[in-house]
Structures are given as C-alpha cells and as structure tokens.
Amino acid sequence: MAKSNLGQDPDSTAAVAVLKRAVELDAESRYQQALVCYQEGIDMLLQVLKGTKDASKRCAFRQKISDYMDRAENIKKYLDQEKEDGKYHKQIKIEENATGFSYETLFKEYLHETVTEVWLYNFLRFCEMLIKKPCKVRTIHLLTSTDEGLGNAQQSSGLEEIKQSLRSHGVLLEVNYSSSIHDREIRLGRFSLGYCDLDLRPCHETTVDIFHNKHTKKL
C-alpha cells in the first residue's frame, strides 16, 4: 500500500502512525494484529475527516480510508476462512514486566455466542471471565501440573471447590494432569497495582498461542 501523505496536524499524524504500523504488520504476515491496527487507524482518520474543511484534503482522506478499508476487509475474509478451515493460529509475544495482558484482553475477541467448549492450561480468573461472557461454554478442560507434597491435597481441594462452583453455573470442569507443564506466577502484595486488575499486573516473558478449530477435537 502506498505511503500516506495526510497532513501534519496531531490527529492526522497519530492516525498515520497507527496505519503505518498496520502496513508493517501486514507485510510480516501478522494479519490479526494488522487488522486491529487498520481498524483503529481507519476510525482515527474518520474523526480527522469530520473536522477537515478543505475539499482537496477531504478527498485525499476519503481515498486513503477507502484503500485501507478494502485491505482490512480482505484480511478479515482471509482470517475468517482460516478459522473455517481450522488453520487459524495467533501468536502473542509478551515481554518481561509488560502490562496490559489480562485474560480478558487476550481472549475477549474469541468469546462470542458460538463458543461452547474451552481447552486451557492454567486457570481461576479465566473461569470467572468465561462465566461473564456471552459464550455458551458447557465444558472446561484443564491440563495442569501436580503440586508436590502438602500442596497436592490443597490443589485437589481447591479444584474440587472450583468444580462445584462451576457446576452451579451449568459448566462441567474436567481436570487432567501433566508432568511436563511448568507453572509460572508473579506474587504481588495486596496493595500493589495489578492485584485486582490483571491488565496492570507485570508479566513474565512468555508466548501465547491461540488456535481456532471449527470443531473441537479431543486430545
């Protein structure tokens, strides 16, 4: 896509920066992130267009918006087809001490009315989020490691409590254990930012992989 030449006012400059990032992500085949940036940049340009009086600038804005909308629509169609074919894979890389990566931030775009089953690898706030969302999840599969020593009894007791709580919401919890999973956690004081709002909680460096299948497959 051609480089933008949309003026130097702050709002326009911000929109150009976001759209430039969209084009970069697009070129790297990071289509999901590119789509988000295209959509955000288009919204910003539409706001700039509303406040623009000059006819030639308005024409330029409209053409750019049209071009970016066409590309965003093509990416959306491609991603929808990938999901339909069961090939969709999104990878999110989280840097050490990064913030803004709560469960809701990571997964909310996938929790719509068609979701009925979830496989996951680590836990409780994720369950709380699922219960509040419009998806119709009826089964949650948890794959986790076994705590050692006295922690094993506490783990079993805690998971049983969660099972009972989920059952009251009409959700079945199935638990399986693996010796190859390594749990990672950040301990925070009660009065530290991020104790309640996970978007503010510093993260360990990690990678989140999200796969989309049309039909849930048993492992």
Description:
This protein has helices spanning 10-27, 31-50, 55-84, 103-107, 125-132, 150-167; strands at 88-94, 117-120, 139-144, 172-177, 206-212. It is elongated. Strand 2, helix 5 and strand 3 (139-144) form a beta-alpha-beta unit. It is 45% helix and 14% strand. The model is unreliable at 184-188 and 215-219 (pLDDT under 50). The strands form two sheets. The protein has a three-stranded parallel β-sheet with strand order 2-3-4, with helices on one face. The two termini are 42 Å apart. The protein has 219 residues and is α/β, with parallel strands linked by helices. It comes from Myodes glareolus (Bank vole).
Considering the chains and any ligands shown, give keywords for the structure:
5 strands, two-stranded antiparallel ribbon, 219 residues, 3-stranded parallel beta sheet, disordered C terminus, alpha/beta
Radius of gyration: 22 Å
Tally of DSSP helical segments: 6
Largest sheet: 3 strands, parallel
Order of helices and strands: HHHEHEHEHEE
Please give the number of β-strands.
5
Query: Per the principal axes of the C-alpha atoms, what is the gross shape?
Result: elongated
Distance between the termini: 42 Å
- Fraction of residues in β-strands: 5-15%
Low-confidence stretches: 184-188, 215-219
Q: Portion of residues in helices?
A: 40-55%
Give average pLDDT, whole number. Answer: 78
Strand order of the largest sheet: 2-3-4
Structural class: alpha/beta
